[in-house]
Every structure is written in C-alpha cells, then in structure tokens.
Write a structure and sequence with these properties.
With 135 residues, the protein is α+β, with helices and mostly antiparallel strands. The protein contains two helices and six strands. Strands 1, 2, 3, 4, 5 and 6 form a six-stranded antiparallel beta sheet that branches. The longest helix is centred in the first third of the chain and has 20 residues.
Length: 135
C-alpha cells in the first residue's frame, strides 16, 4: 500500500499457540506496537502514555493466514479517513519474505480529554500529520 508506515515485529516463543501459530491475542499486541510506533513517527515525539490523548475505541481483525515463528514480520499502518475527533486506521501484518498479508486490522482511534472524559477535536497540526499517511 502507498503511504504505509512499517515497523518490524519480533515474534517470541511465548507468542505461539499449541498449533505452533502466533496466538490471536499476541497479534493484537503486534498491532498495538505498530500503532505506537506509527504515532511516534508521525508526530516525531516519544509517547508519554500519561498524557497521550489518543484512545483506541474499536478494533476488528481478519486472520488471513497463520503466522509462524520464523516469519519475517512487519506491521504496516495507514490512515483511511480523518474525522473531527477520530480517525480510521488500517494495519496489516505482512511477511516480508513472501509479501503475504497474514492479518488485517481496522481500528478507530479517538482524540480524548481524560479529565473531561469526552472526545475533542483533533488539533489541526496533528490532523495534517495524520493525513500524510492517508491512503
């Protein structure tokens, strides 16, 4: 995909299930890592989780093919659309050696005021950075 941010994923032995596949729950962690790295890259800042204002509110996964321990895995991330206070994101776990998409993720992330306990408008400067990764 065009304008996809990509980061490597390290598969650990503890990620495997009895079938020797990466467990579905571990794959959720891979997508979390991909989103975190995406935010740091797009916003050019290390995330301070105590003050970070983006919150994951929806996630949907499509498991296309099993992921195995020796797969050369990356998590690709991009933006589908940006609204006033939220955006839709697409992510993929891809084996770099084969180019095969193993799992796809669709997520909705909201800009959230923790003290007021409500969503807020995404600041224009951050909106512009997110739009750089819109596909």
């Amino acid at each position: 995909m065009i304008n996809m941010f990509s980061c490597p994923i390290q598969i650990r032995m503890s990620d495997l299930d009895p079938y020797n596949h990466v467990n579905n729950g571990a794959q959720c962690n891979y997508f979390d890592m991909g989103r975190s790295r995406f935010f740091e890259y797009a916003f050019q800042a290390e995330i301070d989780w105590l003050t970070f204002k983006y919150v994951l509110v929806h996630v949907g996964l499509d498991f296309k093919m099993p992921i195995r321990f020796h797969d050369d895995l990356v998590c690709e991330s991009a933006i589908l659309e940006v609204g006033n206070s939220s955006f839709k994101m697409v992510q993929r776990l891809v084996d770099q050696t084969t180019g095969m998409v193993k799992t796809e993720c669709q997520a909705v992330v909201v800009y959230f005021d923790r003290e007021a306990n409500k969503s807020e408008r995404i600041p224009d400067m951050e909106r512009a950075k997110l739009l750089e990764y819109k596909i």
